[in-house]
Amino acid sequence: MIRALTLGLAAAALAVSAADARTVAAPHVAAQNFEQLSKPLPLPYNEGANADAGVAAAKARALRGHKRLLIDLGGNWCLDCRLLAGTMELPELRAFVAKHYEVVTVDIGRFDKNGQVPAAYGITGRLKGVPAVLIVDPRTNRLVNAGHETALADARSLSPQALADWLAQWAA
Length: 172
What we know:
The protein is of the alpha+beta class. The chain contains six helices and four strands.
């Protein structure tokens, strides 16, 4: 019994070690706060874009590049969305995101446009906030960060480093 328990604990430790080995470290972000971001903040959402075509094209690029698909749902009216976009444009984070993700932005209007995009990943009804970030495995079309899609909806309460850390936890 003790031997079985010991073997079980050893196996669990190896599983944790294997999971830790797959963890991607976030880059160090020099900006300590959002006041240090370039101004004006970006307006990342193209209101006239075909969201379905944009997501399909980004998914195809993610597959070819062996990256995860990052779908950023939001609107240019949203300060938290613009802070996320500005943070992702910082040189140290831009290189990290380019290495691990294929990014597509989807304009959701005032929660009244392009609801079919999150619905394709099982998120129905009104989003709980924006930005809503969907991290998708393009090989399986599975939502990797299920239950955490709106974690950045209050991005202004975080730091640029905290945003980088959040993105790193889902990187492949």
